[in-house]
Amino acid sequence: MTTSPAPAGRTRLRRLDATDLARVAVFAAVVAVLGLPGGFTVFGSVPITAQTLGVMLAGAILGPWLGALSMTVLLALVAVGLPLLAGGRGGIGVFVGPSAGYALGWIVGALVIGLIVHAGGRKPAPWRTALGIAVGGILVIYAVGIPVQSLVTRLPLGPTALSSLVFVPGDIVKAVIATAIVTTLVRAYPRAFRRVWAVRPAEVPARDAAPVP
């Protein structure tokens, strides 16, 4: 009898259940808690906070769709007035300020992180985790945030992008921390991901791959 791995698409297509919704709520709360220490502003506009670390973890652990959903839930709560962003900020005014693009970029960033980290339904590899977190958690968020900041502050795109370089060292540190956490969870507590990972043929033991006469 041959043993075949579960289809990678099965977990992506299943309906949301209570556990999924609870995990979405937990990661929205994690990002909110990471904002409690507050942040400090650079050039009087966008604050540097630890909340991006939560975005990175949400995309890498929950996967693309639940990760994006958790950030959507968080920002929806912010929009109705809850002070869940760093410094106790909340309300619809957040989404017309200089940092609006960065906050909205969390949704796209979590989505991209999940797509890369869990590409092909495979178990997250350290290199793919680091790549996904760097691309989605840094580049994508900047790609959304910088143009909006430029538009709101009425500064040229070039100088706005240049001034944003001050965020990079901190974001790299957060990316390293997130990668270490995810890699540790894969080894020590894979149930945290609540996924059935695809197994490539080369990874199936020979006794399972060969049919029994």
UniProtKB/TrEMBL annotation:
Annotated localization: Cell membrane
Keyword annotations from UniProtKB, A to Z: Cell membrane, Membrane, Transmembrane, Transmembrane helix, Transport
One Gene Ontology MF term: biotin transmembrane transporter activity
Transmembrane residue ranges: 21-42, 48-66, 73-96, 102-119, 131-152, 172-190
Gene Ontology terms: cellular component: plasma membrane
Pfam families on file: BioY
Keyword Membrane: yes
Topological relation to the membrane, as annotated: Multi-pass membrane protein
Keyword Metal-binding carried by entry: no
Source species, domain of life: Bacteria
Sequence similarity: Belongs to the BioY family.
Protein name per the record: Biotin transporter
Species annotation: Leifsonia sp. NPDC080035
